[in-house]
Specification:
single chain, mainly beta, Porin, 14-stranded antiparallel beta barrel, 4-stranded mixed sheet, 1 helix, 25 strands, signal, Transporter
Length: 385
């Protein structure tokens, strides 16, 4: 069986790989598919995920939807410098979290004792990555690659209400300022273009950050709070990507991702002093994600994919700042190629988010979160030159 050159593989990389809160703080799946494109190639993409996550607190009150929608940008440039050497620069926003409780629920919101203004619990953590890869292709089949990864990270947290009553009468703030740090990535890829066979295995190292932090509670907000350093290590990961032709103009594909979340924690120093042997955020299980599907080229200009996904989550019970445990997903994608050297991809993915028990460092059980879902949208532009 000899297949025509296909352009349909991995279209759903345009849609978020994970759901909000579905597997710790994993957002993008950290694909390097752009670097493995033939010849010179550039792309830019944007994905949006809108989650609906709600539950009941320990008193049986509805929490309301605490999941804020978010968007994630990506871009890549790959240059085939010689027949044997390639260079790639990849940008993504791999890890993050965004949560907000605004219902007036007394477990997650309170009247600020300083301002007398009604406030709710909220949190946002963001990261940005630049990955520089240098690839060596000894022949048409093999590609060995490695390079440095530069990462920025920052976070802001506001805890309110009875669920966090041990932290200054239920009012705690932390501003973890932007920090830059370095890691690395390496991998190997194998392909047989004639049958649309591609396989790649990519490792990314952990990256250690020291974030300058300002914290305060109701007890010390009037004197400017407490300045310190919060140590955070974003996790190492491994991606296995597979694709093969199964009939003319049709491919099957799969992605398996492992992320080492077990032992991950965020513990600002003042928080640690007030709540010994606890963390603001922590996970106790590694994440496994599997995404598999079929892509088909219908005409010279149109192709599409369908995929299903599963995610293990990163442990249960979980923090109330991300109270779901894994997911199942179903995705659809389409690609339009007006000319042979550029294309537009779009996709949508629906997530059934796993039920979870929400915990805080102050109380053992503050809520049950069930029957939640999310929907993601993605758009990508690619150009071959």
């Amino acid at each position: 069986m000899k297949l025509k050159t296909l352009s349909v593989a991995m279209i759903l990389a345009t849609v978020p790989m994970t759901g909000a809160f579905a597997a710790a703080m994993d957002r993008t799946g950290q694909s390097i598919s752009a670097f493995l494109q033939p010849g010179n190639y550039a792309e830019a993409g944007l994905s949006v995920l809108d989650a609906d996550v709600s539950g009941k607190d320990a008193d049986g009150n509805n929490t309301g939807d605490m999941a804020s929608s978010y968007h994630s940008a990506s871009a890549a440039l790959k240059i085939q410098a010689t027949d044997n050497i390639s260079v790639g620069l990849l940008f993504d926003q791999p890890f993050g979290a965004k949560a907000e409780y605004n219902t007036g629920d007394h477990n997650f919101s309170s009247v600020n004792p300083i301002t007398s203004v009604k406030e709710g619990t909220s949190a946002e953590v963001t990261t940005e990555n630049l990955t520089l890869l240098l690839g060596f292709q000894p022949n048409a089949n093999w590609n060995f690659y490695a390079g440095p990864v530069w990462q920025q990270a920052k976070g802001e947290v506001h805890l309110r209400g009875l669920a966090y009553g041990g932290l200054g009468a239920g009012a705690y703030n932390a501003n973890m300022k932007n920090d830059d740090a370095w890691g690395w990535a390496a991998g190997v890829a194998y392909q047989i273009p004639e049958i649309a066979l591609k396989a790649s295995l990519t490792y990314r190292s952990e990256i250690k950050h020291e974030l300058s932090s300002n914290e305060n509670t109701a007890r010390n907000i009037s004197i400017g709070g407490f300045d310190g350093v919060t140590e955070v290590t974003t996790p190492q990961s491994v991606n296995l990507d597979l694709q093969t032709g199964i009939m003319e103009n049709t491919v099957a594909f799969a992605n398996v991702r492992w992320v080492n979340w077990d032992g991950f924690s965020i513990t600002p120093p003042l928080f640690g002093q007030n709540v010994p042997n606890a963390s603001l955020v922590e996970y106790n299980k590694d994440q496994w994600t599997i995404n598999t599907g079929v892509g088909r080229k219908f005409t010279e200009k149109w192709s599409g994919t369908v995929s299903v996904g599963w995610d293990s989550g990163a442990g249960n019970p979980v923090t109330t700042l991300g109270p779901t445990e894994g997911y199942w997903s179903l995705g659809l994608g389409a690609q339009f190629s007006p000319a042979s050297n550029y294309f537009i991809q779009g996709g949508v993915k629906y997530f059934w988010l796993g039920d979870a028990q929400g915990l805080t460092a102050i109380e053992n059980n503050v809520g049950q979160f069930k029957d939640n879902h999310a929907i993601g949208y993605g758009l990508k532009f690619g150009y071959k030159f």
